Amino acid sequence: MVTIKKSRIKDIARLAKVSIGTVDRVLHSRGRVSPHTEQKVKEIAIKINYKPNILARALVINKKYNIGLFIPQPNGNEYWEQAFENNHKLISKFEQLGLNIELYYYSAENKKSFEEAGQKIIKSQPNAVIMASLFLHEGLSFYNQCCDRSIPVIIFDTTIPYLEPLSFIGIDSFQSGRVAAELMTLTSHKKDKFAILHFDQELVDAPQMLERERGFISYLDEKCPDRKYIVRVLNNKQHYYQNEIKEMLEKDKISSIFVSTAKVYQIGSYLQQNKIPGIIVIGYDLTSKNIQLLNDGYIQFLINENPRLQVEQSINTLGNYLLYGEPINSKILFPIEIITRTNFNSHISNSSASHQFAEKV
Amino acid sequence: MVTIKKSRIKDIARLAKVSIGTVDRVLHSRGRVSPHTEQKVKEIAIKINYKPNILARALVINKKYNIGLFIPQPNGNEYWEQAFENNHKLISKFEQLGLNIELYYYSAENKKSFEEAGQKIIKSQPNAVIMASLFLHEGLSFYNQCCDRSIPVIIFDTTIPYLEPLSFIGIDSFQSGRVAAELMTLTSHKKDKFAILHFDQELVDAPQMLERERGFISYLDEKCPDRKYIVRVLNNKQHYYQNEIKEMLEKDKISSIFVSTAKVYQIGSYLQQNKIPGIIVIGYDLTSKNIQLLNDGYIQFLINENPRLQVEQSINTLGNYLLYGEPINSKILFPIEIITRTNFNSHISNSSASHQFAEKV
DNA sequence: TTGAAAGCGCTAACAT
DNA sequence: ATGTTAGCGCTTTCAA
Lengths: 361, 361
Prior knowledge:
Two copies of one chain form a homodimer.
Chain A: H1 9-16, H2 20-27, H3 35-47, H4 54-61, E1 65-72, H5 78-84, H6 87-96, E2 99-106, H7 111-123, E3 128-131, H8 136-148, E4 153-156, E5 167-170, H9 173-186, E6 193-199, H10 207-223, E7 228-234, H11 238-252, E8 254-259, H12 264-273, E9 280-284, H13 288-296, E10 301-304, H14 307-324, E11 331-333, E12 337-339, H15 344-349, H16 351-355
Parallel strand pairs in A: 1-2, 1-3, 3-4, 4-5, 5-11, 6-7, 6-8, 8-9, 9-10
Antiparallel strand pairs in A: 10-12
Helix pairs in contact in A: 1-2, 1-3, 2-3, 5-14, 6-14, 7-8, 9-10, 12-13
Chain B binds a DNA duplex (16 and 16 nucleotides) through residues 6, 8-10, 18-22, 24-25, 28, 30-34, 37, 52-53, 55-62.
């Protein structure tokens, strides 16, 4: 096999009969080069198919970046715990390369804590921020502060409408609602009635939940306009919502239930406790309670948001952008993964492989 | 923020009052170091939390590897075309880093061509091989030749039983069959009858197809032992199989059909042409014909093997192993992805994000 | 406008 | 057993 030798700056310099300093100036358009030389160097670079060695470049640049990772406190919240499982190695990998990733937590129940953590981040003067904001208004305000200071922001998990961050990384909520509606339609009779349930939150602050509902309904409107369905917002307190569900099931003869969040286990548990089989239940996220109920047959489908991969992808994307100048997509939408009792294992064991599209280069 | 300075070999040397050469010898266990010095250096390395700079290491190692990528000729085979879509950039990325990836094609219909290409690879004396063998016996023989020459092999897409390659990368066929059975069960009545169809191939040579069938049946046996089903091997010629299907549908009142390969479109097309709605059809792979029928409602579910990601992951895994000495999993099983009319778009646009577990570091 | 040279952190050959 | 040094390919400073 003919091994083509890699071409280096030195080769260009030799062929163009100039010094490597000159070549460098041309390649980086730093000026102070005569047009004639510039032309010649460029030609030769193309001719010998010069590609810079990113390792050498990264080595010599040796720049340090401070990244603020702005996220809900994972303790006690399984979804966010999953998000950071195993990401220590990713973080320390990038640390080696000069990315200092600092974590800033806020409480998912406390807007104040979000604002406070946000102030800390701003004060730390980061080179970039990765954030997942559960609060619409506060998230927007923080984003604007970053913009004012020219700090690039990657938003993941939860969209904030109308913003144009460096990149949004997550899943398409609207589309995921459509998928849920499709699965319900496939698993039911034409005359069955559906329910869409939200658990009490300030819906204004939960654009995701509304988008999921919108998607769900858009599918029904489009594919089976005769379908009957109801929409309910349930109180989050067990005592209340259990009564509400009971009443609903008695009155409405629901065949299938779509819950707009990971709280779908509250429905599954109710059905399990009261031994009500035969209802198709769909919700979000592979939390342990949800998976248990999936296994027990009281939830049929879960839509996986793959929080761990979202974080991984966010860090990777930002790292490659800062360190290697890789272009960045303004939107990275994850596949909408349908999880069932039978395939969830394959998703858990290797969410990284599927999505680990992680390439180390 | 306190920026902790990265520790380098030089720092260890200074603190241990030895030269960097000695430190290097300790860190790489190259011997020729007194026990006392060794002990001291190790202690200090741990104390200052030394992590080698992989960039500098990769730069100086600067070794060239020849990799043989041994795969079916993609031209005219959409699955394999997908597998190599966009992988040029990955390949050229690694080329920069010293991985020379040479492609060797064989014809999926011609065992002889497999053997010939195999000989070529052996002759080229590669440092490692990545292969997808559609032929059981020939694949085994080639694998053994590599072993004899201590050439590590990564096998992807199609397993060869009983081998222990450096890594197997692909999906669990058995489990995917179970998923198909589950989906059918969820979308049908208890008394409906299922069909499992194989399209004519030498089944001996297709362990995947048999594994998928085995998985399918194992699920039924386990979860609904009363379920009626039939298994058929159909002739691949349109004229023949159309008659066979017709007969089958007339005689057996099938509600749902599971096809063990990407040829599921042959069933979908038949149903479409003959305007037979209401049958649940499940098969494999996101080829254009399959997707068209998914869209038209004559296929309900496809299981995605994500060929592109498999290739990406194979190259990444091998590259990181060779270049950075990363540990390697003997098995990397992908998530079993359920594709429907509504979510296929999200899978096509970004199969890389989900699985792009590719991290560049 | 150009060239020379130092140095990023590491490895490995060579000298002592 | 230990130390010294060249050099991987690139960027950047300084001198000419």
